[in-house]
Amino acid sequence: MHGRMIHGQRKNGKLYEESQSYDAQGRYIRAVDRAGLNKRLLDHLEQMPNVTLYFNHKLTGADFNKNIAWFEQRKQARTDHAQNPTEDPLMKAERERPKEISVEFDLLIGADGAHSASRYHMMKFARLTYQQEYIDTLWCEFHIEPRAADDSFAISPNHLHIWPGGSFMFIAIPSLDKSFTCTLFAPESYFASLSTATSDGLVSSFSKNFPGVCPELISPKELKRQFTQNPHLPLISIKCTPYHYKSGVVILGDAAHAMVPFYGQGMNAGLEDVRVLFDILDAHDVYNDSPNLATTIKERREGALNAYTLQRTPDAAAINDLALRNYEEMRSGVKSPVYRMRKWVEETINVFLPSLGWRTQYTRVSFENQRYSEVEKAVARQGRVIIIAVSLGCFGITSLAALRLLRRGNIGR
Fold it and tell me: What is d(CA 353, CA 290) in angstroms, rounded to the nearest whole number?
């Protein structure tokens, strides 16, 4: 996807589309199916001789001083969503009273999501500062089918499509099968009003706030069905520190820093966690078991995990905040003249004066390996320069106007 496609309706009732490129150098982002990526990674792991995969094991406890963890062995995994339970009672009974096993470990890596059991048990040992926030926004998924006439994309496949609504928005992301996965993000009160509305009321709300979606892309019947049947789920933002305890446990990804999805950086940040962690482990020589070294592997690993926490915590906090602010940009800022002007200024400087190192925030986050905390500082610095330049420009124009008035007054005398 080369950019955002902003959808709207003019005062005369005509629908419009406006493309906003992601990057001045023409770089683009990719829409990747998460389930497909997970399967590819699991397939690759399965082929590695030093990896054994165990499914349907639930972490129920851990002692991070003795490095022992306890797991329940389940015959069958839960397949529904905790906030939208659809599980058959017979399947639930089948999963009850599982066998528990204990496992000794050197290092437990907790990559088990926002509601992490690893983090929960680590909190009993580490003095962990924890912050959890549910933002006042729910989300519901929709689907746009390919065109029936020729099985082609219904709208441009090279854009992230946005229908900004001020306090809410509707987005559409292309898939390889030429359909679009769409999401409605809105305050809980908006979902409540739609839930009590009639079918006509739902369609009317979409026509008013997201022009061109229904009936052009999704039929009224399908809109109602998808809104009714698909779950309305919350969005959580989590910050915590430290990410480790001694030499025995470290948490990565959403377990350490769950974020709202508006920068598309959740999985990217998790994968970057892995790269950063193993770079630090390598730098601390944690695999060298030579008896001639002054420290043990355990001591070096503890030092590496401490260094990882110190480096990664400010970066994770930064991308959490950036993702929240990007929601404001997507649902309202993309239509702002101020936003467009700043984007144009930064991209123009990037193209014609690249030595200055100016890039937009989106370019820094999406196309570079610059630390998220450094991105925040660089973007804030660029913003201050723009404000100073605009202020000086306004002051200069005002001064020139005042001089001309004074000269005219002198001439008149």
Answer: 52
Residue 182 near residue 31 (C-beta atoms within 8 A)? no
DSSP state, residue 13: S
Residue 102 reports pLDDT greater than 90: yes
| Encoded tokens for 400 | 């020139």
> CB 305: neighbour CB atoms within 10 A?
25
The pLDDT value given to residue 193: 93
For residues 126-136, average pLDDT: 95
User: What does the alpha-carbon distance between residue 144 and residue 223 come to, in Å, rounded to a whole number?
Assistant: 10
Query: Cα 4 to chain center, whole Å?
Result: 16
For residue range 299-350, list pLDDT tens digits in order.
999 999 999 999 999 999 999 999 999 999 999 889 889 899 999 999 999 9
The position carrying tokens 């406890």 is: 61
Is 339 in a helix, a strand, or coil? helix
Task: Phi first, then psi: give them for residue 139, nearest 5 degrees.
Answer: -135, 150
3-state SS assignment for residue 319: helix
Query: Two tokens at 284?
Result: 């601390």
CA distance 228 to 235: 19
The residue written with tokens 């950063």 in the block is 276
In the structure, how many helices (H) and strands (E) does the chain have? 12, 13
> Which residues in 124-232 belong to E strands, given as ranges?
129-144, 159-164, 169-174, 180-186
Q: What is the pLDDT of residues 132-156, one digit of tens each?
A: 999 999 999 999 999 988 999 999 9
Biggest CA-to-CA distance, the chain: 102
